[in-house]
Amino acid sequence: MNDKHSQPDPELALPAAVRTRISPARSAAVAARVGIMLGVAVTICFLTGLISHWIQHPPGWFWWPAHPVWLYRVTQGAHVISGVVAIPLLMVKLWSVFPRLFARPLLGNPLRAVERGSIAVLVGAMLFQLVTGLFNTAQYYPWRFFFTTTHYAMAFVAIGALAVHLAVKLPVVRAALARPDAAAATPAERERAVVSRRVVLGSAIAAAAVAGLAVAGQTVTPLRRLAVLAPRSGQGPQGLPVNRTAGEAGVTESARDNAYRLTVTVGERTRAFSLAELAALPQTTATLPITCVEGWSAAADWSGVAVRDLLAAVGDYGGGDVEFRSLERGGLFNRSVLPETHVRAADSLVALRIGGAELDLDHGFPCRLITPNRPGVLQTKWLSAIEVRR
């Protein structure tokens, strides 16, 4: 049939073998709509990823509040969920546009060459980000580069390529969305269609929703039983997951040593506290979530000495950031720096107990840092020293 409406996009000079076999479901309408959903997911993932990175590696201008205590739990949960949701959307997007990658000319004028180049960079960067990010949630690193900095740098490559691609394709997207019957197909198109455009769009939305629910439970407690793909969903000593055990950190003996002391330095004054002396100080209890960069989070009742009270027991804290060091000698996160905003928060604790029970060794016994609205990697366990930075 020579019905002009049954032909694929006339602007594309596709090889005949490709042109005659393109499913009507691989249309600009499908690509545009899936692309919008993908763009929303990627934007959420990008922005929340920036927040997480800046909290861990703060630029001089960056400020992050201590309250509400659940804010980082929401932003990092949204980061992981949106990243997982983007995976099926990207697959459908690539499926819908794949035949048009063979359109002639392959490069053509400068604008088309830029568009082709942005597509190559965009697809490569997106696949890299989503695959490595998914592996990170499972703490699986089959590569030699440092994930955090590489993931952060590639995020800008991906979002930049996306911006160029959108700028070039905006007229096509607007035209596809403006068609009142964009989801309909002609009789000739229906003859060679295996699935309709509506089925493809519905399947993309359903797959994205299922993927999101499969991991959302590690952040959203009521959905925990649905989190079949979440690597950590609340199981562990004292009801909290553990990323790094005392055995892996090599601190089992030093943490249990009767001669253990926590050294606290404020200005020119230093004092060493035994576990009994820490327990004798005024105790504070706070309900705080511990939220890991991999996306999981779980709340608990923590008890211990407020950081500001512990500093006051040594000397006059006049402000400034405070460094916390672990008994762990190696590792990327054997120390952390607590900003002054969090130091002064009443619920920033050197925790000794969880739910009224002594800290489990894998949760940081004899004492650990637990503060509101901070990533778990910065909640230093097995504390050995605390020092005010001037």
From TrEMBL:
Signal sequence, start to end: none
Membrane-crossing segments per the record: 30-56, 76-98, 119-138, 150-168, 199-217
Record domain Oxidoreductase molybdopterin-binding: where: 255-389
Keywords: Membrane, Transmembrane, Transmembrane helix
Pfam families assigned to the protein according to its UniProt record, in alphabetical order: Oxidored_molyb
CDD domains the UniProt entry points to: SO_family_Moco
Superkingdom of the organism of origin: Bacteria
Listed name of the protein: Molybdopterin-dependent oxidoreductase
Organism: Nocardia rhizosphaerae
